[in-house]
Each structure stands twice: as C-alpha cells, then as structure tokens.
C-alpha cells in the first residue's frame, strides 16, 4: 500500500515536472513562426534575390522631432499607402514606427535613425543586426545640429538620407519639376535647365502690375539671431546701403508667418526676399527659399550651396557671386529700378513648378535595386564626410 502511494506520488511529481518544463519551454522560446520567418529570410538572402520577399520593410527607430510618424499620414504604411498616399513609383514597401511590427528587429530591411536627435534613452539599440539590413543615417539639418557623437558610430550606418546631393537617398526640402513633362529637374548635380528668354521678349502682366505697388526693397523673416553663417552681419551691412525690413525676434517688425497678409505683403510691398541660410553647408537650401519662390518676389540667397543645382537660371540673386555687400546692394537697386529686368526673374514660372516627395519613396526604390542586394556598404567614418561639407565664413566684404 505504502509502496503504491510512493509510486503514485513519484508519478505525480514527474508529471508536474514535465508540465513545468513544458510551460518553461513555451515561455522562453520565440514563437514558432518567428523562427520560421527568420530562417526563410536568412536562407533566402543567401540563395539570392529571387527568394527574398517582394516587399521591403522599413522601421522608423525614433521620432522625427517628437513626430512619431515623421509627418507621414499613418503609423504603418503598406504598398497601397506608398502608392496612393505618397505617390511612389516603386511602392512595394512596408514602413512602421512600431518596433514589434515584425517579430524580430533583424527582419527589417532598413532601420532609420534620426541623427538630429540622440538615440532614445529608454530604447536599447538592436542587440544583433542582420548582414542584409541597412541602418539609415537620416536628417534634414546641417551638421551643426547633429546630436550624435559620430566618431563613436563608425561602421554603423549603411545608407545616408540627407539633403546633400551625394547622399545615397537625397532628401531635399523641395523639388523643381518641369511643368510640361512632369519630370523632376532639380536638385541634381547637373540639371538640364531651359535657357531664360532674351530680356524684353517675355512679359508677365501680374508681376508687371505688382512692380508698381512694390515700394520697399527687402524683407527678412528671421528667428535665430546668431548663426554660424553670420548672415546677421551680412544683413546688417546690407542695411547700410538699402532698406532691409527685419521681421521676427531679431528685428524691429512683427508679422505672424501664418497670417496670410504677411505673405501677400511679399507680393505687393517688397522687391526682394532674403533667403539667408544659418549654415554655409554644401547643398543646404531650406524651405524659406522655396516658400519665397511661391510668391512674386525675387529671392536673394546666401548659403553654402551651388544654387544652379537647385533653381532655374535667372530666378534668384546669389549674394556669394558678389565681392562686396556694396556691389550686391548696387545690383539689387538696378534690378528693382528696371521694370523689364525685374520681370525677367519670373520667366521660369511658365516652365517649372515646385513639389515635395517623401524621401521614403527613394528609400523604398533603393531597397529594391538589384545592385543593393548584392552590395554591402557601410560608412566607416561618416563624420568626415558629414562635417567636411561646411565652411565657417563667406568671402563677401562687409
Ligand atoms: C555649380 O554647378 C554647376 C552645375 O553642375 C556647375 O556647372 C558649376 O561649375 C558649379 N559651380 C561651382 C562654383 O562649383
Ligand atoms: C507687359 O505687360 C504689361 C501689362 O499687360 C504692360 O503694361 C507692359 O507694357 C508690358 N511690357 C512689355 C515690355 O511688353
Ligand atoms: C551594413 O553595415 C554592417 C556593419 O558594417 C555590415 O555588417 C552589413 O553587412 C552592412 N549591410 C549592408 C546591407 O550593406
């Protein structure tokens, strides 16, 4: 009797142990399909392109200045949203800001890091990375705004996605499109522009009538008063020669940017809009310039870019083309005084218009390029590439 009880007890204990072991195993092993997906992915990647899934997946690692969606319409976008909402020509991609969208971080084809902000503190970096996935260095700010110690991040990134034209994925503030063909023309290293018509052979009745009401010279809207480019000194020097009205924190005038009257004033009151960048960096051309181009006002640009790669010829005045502020002011006075000359700066509006595209279209297309699947690329010293694109001062004599 006692023997039988002992046996039963042993059996019960054994069952309990096995049951416990089973629960432990279930709790501690990844989901079955997760292993399956991972194996399929890795095997597929080794065998070749054909075995890889048709869509590429992109994870947004962190927010874009607090915007978890990076200004996209949804948290997760599939091929349909890439095609319909973003208008991407290559749209077989999925993108999400939810880290658990795929069962393992190694499964994403690309992970996008916003470098103008530190890595999120409470989010440890992926412990393992697949040799097939791309870590993307993404930002729209100049090098001075980088919030990462890039010397500690060597061999981390595979792709760059910035406003620089030599990035893997170019992410400009806007594009210039040919209105008749719809083709994007700029920014590009060697854009094919139409040539502006001969002076006087072309007229714009709207600008012609506005020219008569424009009684002031230049307007400048600015909120950062001390900048690396020292644009504030250029503006101050210009004020000694011509009227420059400074709106915002750094000036004496006020006009809320969202007040429509403020933008209308650029059409009706001012001859020139100062589009001075805060940093003199290669290809760094921001939305202020593009905003001005939507109005009937001639932009005066100052920055580190070669503007012929961004804008049609004879659509702007580049301060860097002048040796001194005095010569720049002289030229502005000449353009403002001559009606035909002033109107000639708007010739391009008949042929071109501005548009913005999501950079994720190009990222999606890159991930689909057959060359990409066979190439491995990583940046060993991204800092020297990134920081070398800036100068501290301009040659213009103030
Ligand atoms: C600016 O870009 C144009 C177009 O690519 C090029 O022809 C020109 O030489 C460049 N200018 C400078 C100063 O680099
Ligand atoms: C341009 O058009 C305006 C308004 O239609 C007209 O007053 C002006 O004389 C024209 N200028 C030239 C050069 O044709
Ligand atoms: C990305 O860079 C890492 C680290 O250098 C490398 O191991 C990996 O193969 C690269 N991936 C691609 C797709 O180039």
Task: Describe the secondary structure blueprint for this structure.
Elements: H1 2-28, H2 32-47, E1 56-60, E2 76-77, H3 79-84, E3 93-96, E4 110-114, E5 134-139, E6 159-162, E7 169-170, E8 175-178, E9 184-186, H4 205-213, E10 216-221, H5 231-239, E11 244-247, H6 260-268, E12 270-276, E13 280-281, H7 287-293, E14 298-302, E15 317-318, H8 325-337, H9 339-343, E16 352-355, H10 359-368, H11 370-374, H12 382-387, E17 390-391
Parallel strand pairs: 1-3, 1-4, 4-5, 5-6, 6-7, 10-11, 10-12, 12-14, 14-15
Antiparallel strand pairs: 2-3, 8-9, 8-16, 13-17
The structure holds 2-acetamido-2-deoxy-beta-D-glucopyranose (3 copies).
Oligomer: single chain
Strand order of the largest sheet: 2-3-1-4-5-6-7
Q: Give the total of domains.
A: 2
How large is the count of helical segments?
A: 12
Q: What low-confidence regions span 5 or more consecutive residues with pLDDT below 50?
A: 24-39, 41-51
Question: What ions, cofactors and ligands are bound?
Answer: 2-acetamido-2-deoxy-beta-D-glucopyranose
What CATH architecture label of the largest domain applies? 3-Layer(aba) Sandwich
Rounded mean pLDDT score: 88
Order of helices and strands: HHEEHEEEEEEEHEHEHEEHEEHHEHHHE
Largest sheet: 7 strands, mixed
Shape descriptor? elongated
Tell me the CATH superfamily of the largest domain.
Glycosyl transferase family 10, C-terminal domain
Strand content: 15-25%
Protein name: Fucosyltransferase
Main location: Golgi
Keywords: Glycoprotein, Glycosyltransferase, Golgi apparatus, Membrane, Signal-anchor, Transferase, Transmembrane, Transmembrane helix
GO molecular function: fucosyltransferase activity
């Amino acid at each position: 009797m006692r023997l039988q009880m002992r046996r039963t007890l042993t059996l019960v204990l054994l069952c309990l142990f096995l049951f416990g072991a089973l629960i432990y195993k279930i709790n501690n092993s990844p989901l079955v399909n997760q292993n399956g997906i991972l194996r399929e992915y890795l095997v597929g990647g080794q065998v070749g392109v054909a075995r890889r899934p048709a869509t590429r997946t992109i994870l947004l690692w962190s927010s874009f200045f607090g915007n978890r969606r990076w200004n996209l319409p949804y948290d997760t976008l599939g091929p349909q949203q890439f095609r319909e909402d973003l208008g991407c020509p290559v749209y077989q991609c999925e993108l999400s800001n939810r880290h658990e969208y795929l069962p393992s971080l190694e499964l994403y084809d690309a992970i996008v890091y916003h470098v103008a902000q530190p890595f999120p503190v409470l989010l440890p970096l992926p412990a393992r990375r697949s040799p097939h996935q791309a870590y993307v260095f993404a930002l729209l700010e100049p090098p001075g705004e980088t919030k990462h110690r890039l010397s500690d991040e060597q061999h981390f990134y595979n792709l760059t996605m910035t406003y620089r034209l030599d990035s893997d994925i170019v992410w400009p503030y806007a594009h210039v499109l040919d209105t008749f063909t719809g083709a994007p023309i700029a920014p590009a290293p060697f854009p094919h522009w139409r040539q502006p018509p001969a002076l006087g052979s072309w007229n714009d009745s709207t600008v012609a009538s506005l020219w008569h009401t424009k009684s002031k010279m230049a307007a400048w809207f600015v909120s950062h008063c001390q900048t690396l480019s020292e644009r504030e000194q250029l503006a101050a020097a210009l004020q000694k020669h011509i009227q420059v009205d400074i709106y915002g924190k750094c000036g004496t005038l006020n006009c809320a940017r969202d007040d429509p009257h403020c933008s209308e004033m650029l059409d009706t009151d001012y001859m020139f809009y100062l589009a001075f960048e805060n940093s003199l960096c290669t290809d760094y051309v921001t939305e202020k310039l593009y905003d001005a181009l939507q109005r009937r006002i001639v932009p005066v640009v100052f920055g580190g870019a070669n503007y012929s790669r961004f804008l049609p010829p004879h659509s702007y005045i580049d301060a860097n083309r002048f040796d001194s502020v005095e010569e720049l002011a002289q030229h502005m006075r000449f353009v403002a005084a001559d009606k035909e000359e002033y109107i000639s700066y708007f010739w391009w509006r008949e042929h071109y218009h501005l548009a913005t595209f999501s950079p994720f279209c190009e990222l999606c297309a890159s991930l689909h390029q057959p060359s990409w699947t066979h190439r491995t690329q990583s940046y060993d010293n991204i800092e020297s590439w990134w920081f070398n694109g800036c100068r501290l001062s301009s040659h213009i004599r103030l």
